Amino acid sequence: MLVATWNINGVKARIDALKAWLDECGADIVGLQEIKSVDEGFPRAEIEAAGWHVETHGQKGFNGVALLSRKPAARIERGLPGGDADEQSRFIIGEWETDRGPLRVASLYLPNGNPIGTEKFSYKLRWMARLETLARQWLAEEVSFILAGDYNVIPQPEDARNVADWVNDALYQPESRAAYRRLLHLGLLDAVRATTDQPQTYTFWDYQAGAWPKNNGIRIDHILLSPDLSARLAGVRIDKHVRAWEKPSDHVPVLVDLKD
DNA sequence: ATGACGAGCGTGGCTCGA
Known about the structure:
Elements: E1 2-7, H1 15-25, E2 29-33, H2 44-49, E3 53-57, E4 65-69, E5 75-78, E6 91-98, E7 101-109, H3 119-141, E8 144-150, H4 174-185, E9 189-190, H5 191-195, E10 204-205, E11 217-218, E12 221-225, H6 227-230, E13 233-238, E14 254-258
Parallel strand pairs: 1-2, 7-8
Antiparallel strand pairs: 1-14, 2-4, 3-4, 5-6, 6-7, 8-12, 9-12, 10-11, 13-14
Helix pairs in contact: 3-4
The protein binds one DNA strand of 18 nucleotides through loops.
């Protein structure tokens, strides 16, 4: 089973690339982030025509997440629990019935948090605390789950080509990294880091200053697995070639392969 | 050393991102 995540940076601007990648990716479930669209504006019909079930949690202009799947979800929940006043659409949960029991997949778009020292950064940390609370609940339930998305966290120095560029950035602050590490310490597995010893493994390259041709990237799109799924991890894939397409997103798809 | 990109909203130039 293949589960994927991709920050597409605008679904309407990226529809051709999205359809082309969906046709080739082989995934069963795809989490999207930054759809930058309200639910009614999502190009649902085009994606459904290609054989996908579509669930969205959008908002006007910014943010927005979605789940695409070959089989319909048994249950969908929109929003990250614990934030009744949170109007930003950054989290959607799907649950599927599988031969191995229920599988829960979240597509998440964690707040960027810049600039540090502002309300944006404290919102990021509060959001991460809510995510930790949810992960603790799901672990207690002993349900199989995947937290996939754009975490906006550079976990370690080796996850940035030029780490000095990021020391004053919300993505690399000790508090952001510690909150991410707390998720791992709960027993969740960072699937890419667990299966890759290749240096310069990145998922994002800025549009500016020739970051892509210079391979000046960072690894910020992560797939975290519950302990039972960690035992089924067969491999990961980072579809870097998509970054060289015409009108690319600045992020590329990341996938996990789970043994049946 | 500096500047450099792109999407959305909505039609000029902001906001937001990373």
